[in-house]
């Protein structure tokens, strides 16, 4: 998964999270508000329906009683019964008895009348003044031709409230009086008895036009004793105003009020009688509310959950994003320079390869970068790397890119395939860096070198780079067929080395070392040869550098020590004097802490005195920690091994190094044997003289390598060198030939 894919997936996750959160929120809120509205709506409808039905029932009851009185009035008109006081009295008394009125009266427009009531009997000669004000008002309405129903009043003749029906009585189309009948509140029995509507949740009350309770249900929502709906703190100011307005204009209205922290609602509807109203307070809203509340709580919980979910998602996303970018950074970026690493480089290379057929991969490296780290510290080293990064960056074209591999190795993808252009571009980068570091306060001049592979791979660029690693004169090398062959060989060697060791394809050859004073053999050097299955030999310079780089030389050197021990054992067992043998040891093996122990085990297992073995180490070993090397030498000395420094003078050796390392023998590199010019010969002689005499003073014996002629030999004898080794005496021989010639035959 590359960075682009991770990013697009992140965007996808974000979108899905946001959209699903919005949809869930909308659904929850939508459902919630729909349920609430529905509950509210159906509650209202139900309350209104029930109130209207109740109103009709009461009206019908009142109409029925009015009808009774109207029929009686009609019969009075037809029979002119009002002319006879006796007949009138009888009729009133009988009608009252036949119906369930509390009292019944006839009163003429001339203000003279008869009243009948069961507990007082019949009274004649009553006037309007004998009636209470509400009854009087109703009768007066009938004198004006109206059927009337009085307001309620407390009666003296009845224990409880009464009200009065009154109808006009005509004679010859003239109003001559009115029949009035008082009635109990029985028709409001349902209300009085606390009859409930709305499945027991709604309570009906009768109000007058001012909002005073005419009939208040026994069952009340508000338990306190109230005489008006405006009493108490229940209605809000605005609700109060709305109710007053509705009462004035005789309109129905819905309203809400708070009772004991619960929201209730009510419905007021005007009746056609006396400006009365039916008032219904609905407890239904309570449970509905709790249902509503449940919905609300559910909604709130859901909403909170959603918010939490959203935050968790967001947080996860945020973490994911952060981690991803961290992962991307860790996976694809170099933390020192901030540029991409080889993994990302290879991905980009794969992507661009089809588009960009002509390209070049360059591997750029600093000569001796390790020194910068060692001498100036890691931070300075990092500063250098960052500077190189910026320099490369500034010299790339839009389609080009680069990465840092490890240490000071940079790979560049260049969109060019012409050697001339490529060399110019790279040279410019190299010289820019060189100049800047020489002038700016870096304290050292950086020297870079570059391996390039046109239309090739990173590995090929690296091979080209390695081919000039030790050549400070050349800055740029291209991967070509020669390097290709080298690489093929390297691969071949590396893929066969393990099997070769197992199959004993590595053979020990020996070259004699001659005592220059006596001219006799003093010792031998073990040199490895790789015998291939076809019988041919591979020489050390072909494979030793590869083994030293990949670490296999450690195994091979131990193997050679063992082969040396086997031979020394054989010579000893054969009763001949064993000749000391020098064995070449790689730097890596020598630096290994367990090395002395390991080789001691080997010599002990063959019961060979360690003094018969000299360990040859290369002079470049001195570039390591001198104290540590001396410690190692000391441990080896204790066991009995001798230490020889090989190829002295081939690299960066110095007399100082000779002084510091506690070695037993110094092998002068065969390069000293090459006479280039007369001038050169003088210098060479002076140098060799110095080295040999210095070595002698330190008790270190000297060996001249590469003695090929008698002249070489005499030259080294004249310089008082102790030993000589070279083709002049013998080439390296396999152990059988060597043993036969130098051990058993003893023929020199
Ligand atoms: P060295 O240890 O300096 O070995 C001497 C090399 O010089 C040998 O090359 C030898 O054949 C060659 N030589 C001897 N006399 C003359 C002469 O008169 N003129 C010239 N021009 N050369 C001469 P060889 O055997 O090819 O070994 C090359 C190098 O490989 C050795 O140099 C040594 O450094 C390394 N080497 C050889 N065997 C081993 C081994 O078993 N382990 C390790 N680590 N390195 C080994
Ligand atoms: Mg050697
Ligand atoms: Mg040598």
Plain-language structure description:
This protein is α+β, with helices and mostly antiparallel strands. It has 4 domains: 80-180, PAS domain (Beta-Lactamase), CATH 3.30.450.20; 188-289, PAS domain (Beta-Lactamase); 331-479, Alpha-Beta Plaits (2-Layer Sandwich); 511-742, EAL domain (TIM Barrel). It has 21 helices and 28 strands. The strands form 4 sheets. Strands 19-20-22-23-24-25-26-27 form an 8-stranded mixed β-barrel, surrounded by 4 helices. Strand 26, helix 20 (710-718) and strand 27 form a beta-alpha-beta unit. 33% of the residues are buried. Ligand C2E binds at residues 511, 527-528, 539-541, 544, 553, 557, 560, 584-586, 616, 646-647, 670, 705-708, 725-727, 732.
Helix-strand blueprint:
Layout: H1 3-79, H2 85-98, E1 103-108, E2 113-117, E3 121-126, H3 133-143, E4 148-149, E5 153-154, E6 161-171, E7 174-184, H4 189-192, E8 196-197, E9 202-207, E10 213-215, H5 237-249, E11 253-259, E12 262-270, E13 277-282, H6 285-332, H7 342-353, E14 360-366, H8 369-376, H9 378-394, E15 401-404, E16 410-414, H10 419-439, E17 448-454, H11 458-467, E18 476-478, H12 481-502, E19 506-515, E20 521-531, E21 537-538, H13 540-550, H14 552-573, E22 581-584, H15 587-591, H16 595-605, E23 613-618, H17 626-639, E24 642-648, H18 655-660, E25 665-668, H19 678-697, E26 701-704, H20 710-718, E27 723-724, E28 733-734, H21 735-744
Parallel strand pairs: 17-18, 20-22, 22-23, 23-24, 24-25, 25-26, 26-27
Antiparallel strand pairs: 1-2, 1-7, 2-3, 4-6, 5-6, 6-7, 8-9, 9-10, 9-13, 11-12, 12-13, 14-16, 14-17, 15-16, 19-20, 19-27, 19-28, 20-21
Helix pairs in contact: 1-6, 8-9
Bound molecules: ligand C2E and magnesium ion (2 copies).
